[in-house]
Amino acid sequence: MMYLRAFIAGVVLPSVLLPLILSLAVYAERPQLSDVLFVHYLPIIWGVWNVLYFAGLRDILPGSLDVKLMLTGLILGVIVAIVAVFGLDLTQAIGLEGNAIYLPLIIAPILYALFWWLIVKPLNSVVGVESW
After folding, report:
1. Does 132 reside within a domain?
2. Is residue 34 part of a domain?
3. What is the DSSP letter of 63?
4. Residue ranges making up the domain that contains 60
5. Intra-chain end-to-end CA distance of the chain, in Å
6. What are 20-49's pLDDT values in tens digits?
7. What is the C-alpha to C-alpha distance for residues 56 and 46, in angstroms, rounded to an integer?
8. How far is 11 from 123, CA to CA, in rounded Å?
9. Are 46 and 90 in contact (CB under 8 A)?
10. Of the candidates 4, 15, 78, 82, which lies 20 to 30 Å from 101 by C-alpha distance?
11. Residue in 123, 106, 131, 129 with CA at minimum distance from that of residue 13
């Protein structure tokens, strides 16, 4: 039951933000972003990653709870950015060209680390898995 709670806490943020981001992409005349199947799996990936954090990552990662959560988000951000830039060529779908296609490799890990620290951590507390 605790893993289900951790999954739910991880799914909340991308499930709320993804429709907004896809709506903005359509408004900005870039609807091809919604054609990328990987984008629709992001909430599930976040939920599974939160479960993996509680299943073992928090015992492996060094530092305090805040540092562990930020490292967890940073690692996920690196993985997602690498897949998006090199595997799916998602940067063309959002209109990046030239050397700017590598920007997600820097920005995504930083944003993911901040999201995990500022949003997923409180959500974990709300669903009761933080004291696990």
Report:
1. no
2. yes
3. S
4. 2-125
5. 12
6. 988 888 887 777 766 777 778 889 999 999
7. 15
8. 10
9. no
10. 15
11. 123
Per-residue pLDDT tens over the stretch 99-132: 777 888 899 999 999 999 999 889 888 988 876 6
- Angstrom CA distances, 18 to 22, 24, 39, 128, stand at 6, 10, 8, 25
Q: What is the largest CA-CA distance in the chain?
A: 47
The backbone torsions φ and ψ at residue 113, rounded to the nearest 5 degrees and listed phi first, read -60, -45
- Predicted TM-score (pTM) above 0.90: no
Q: What is the Cα–Cα distance from 85 to 41, expressed in whole angstroms?
A: 16
The Cα–Cα gap between 84 and 18 comes to 15
Tokens, residue 86: 């090199």
Residue with tokens 């500022």, as numbered in its chain = 118
Residue 130 lies in a domain: no
